[in-house]
Specification:
Elements lengths: L1 H13 L11 H14 L1 H15 L12 H17 L2 H4 L3 H23 L1 H4 L1 H4 L8 H26 L11 H26 L3 H14 L7 H7 L3 H8 L2 H13 L12 H26 L3 H4 L1
Length: 300
């Protein structure tokens, strides 16, 4: 037993020291973080698999539950807002309209909400071994994308029974998805790091996500915003929300019946600008994450 312990200690002594703190240099530190994540890509894949398995462990229906929430929300909003409040009279193909927005929002909210608690949830592993801490928020993103793929397949199948999207409108989908992923990943990294030091963040995020849902044109149309809000700078402030642009980008891609509806001018250009801003925001959030991660083990 002693011999095995000595051999283990010798092997550990041969391992290079790996600093847990931020790498020096704004650019070089970022590149080093990317290399660390790439070197641990197999671990990242296992964490994604663990995330999916643990979520549906001992469940008879398994991944079917990933559709339960968006379909339940679709039913509630379709009946309550579409039928009872009459929104369906002004918005053609209201069910597709609602489900398109819900598909985008569900991906964003799942990444941000679950990503916020990802570091704290894996505190035991973080305190025991070295690994790039970014893999934990990224594993949440991987599992969220899996659920998103299921919901997206339902959306595409639903459009096939009505007005299937064709042509250049499909270009709005990857552009909108890129904006969504950039900002969602940035927020997940930043909030997961801050949540280690201030646990109230995860509860605040739940409230902000709920408010953000109603600040995006998911259950109401952009035309209603322009009708009720006449001040141009307020409209521009509303459009400054990246998820507003993402939602309308998804609608432009999949909601064929809404081609006659009012959309903001230069939506594609706005999405491209938002994507460029998202790259900068993601970069800044990753560097903040790298700065804060050095004390994760002590705080956890």
């Amino acid at each position: 037993m002693t011999i095995q312990s000595d051999e283990r200690n010798l092997r550990l002594a041969d391992e290079p020291l790996r600093p847990a703190g931020p790498r020096p240099g704004f650019v070089s530190g970022t590149l080093q973080s990317i290399r660390d994540i790439h070197a641990h890509r197999e671990l990242l894949g296992m964490l994604v698999g663990r995330e999916l398995k643990s979520r549906y462990k001992d469940s008879a229906l398994g991944f079917v539950w990933s559709l339960a929430r968006p379909l339940a929300m679709l039913f509630i909003y379709y009946v309550a807002i579409g039928k009872f409040l009459g929104a369906a009279r002004n918005i053609p193909d209201f069910a597709i309209y609602i489900y398109t927005g819900l598909t985008a929002w569900q991906l964003f909210s799942e990444i941000v909400a679950n990503g916020t608690g990802s570091i704290v949830a894996n505190s035991g592993l973080i305190k025991k071994v070295y690994l790039p801490r970014e893999v934990f928020p990224l594993s949440v993103i991987g599992s969220a994308l899996f659920n998103f793929a299921i919901q997206l397949s339902i959306l595409v199948a639903a459009t096939a029974f009505g007005h299937f999207p064709t042509g250049t409108r499909w270009l709005y989908f990857p552009l909108s998805l890129a904006v969504l992923m950039l900002f969602a990943t940035a927020f997940a990294l930043f909030l997961s790091a801050v949540n280690v030091y201030l646990r109230d963040i995860q509860y605040l995020v739940e409230i902000v996500v709920m408010i953000g849902f109603w600040l995006s044109p998911i259950v109401y149309a952009w035309s209603q915003v322009t009708t009720e809000v006449k001040v141009s700078w307020v409209q521009e402030l509303y459009l400054a929300n990246p998820m507003t642009l993402v939602t309308m980008g998804f609608q432009r891609a999949f909601w064929v019946s809404g081609d006659s509806q009012v959309l903001p001018a230069h939506l594609g250009t706005r999405l491209a600008i938002a994507a460029a801003i998202g790259v900068v925001v993601l970069w800044l959030c990753q560097r903040i994450f790298a700065r804060l991660q050095s004390n994760f083990a002590q705080e956890l």
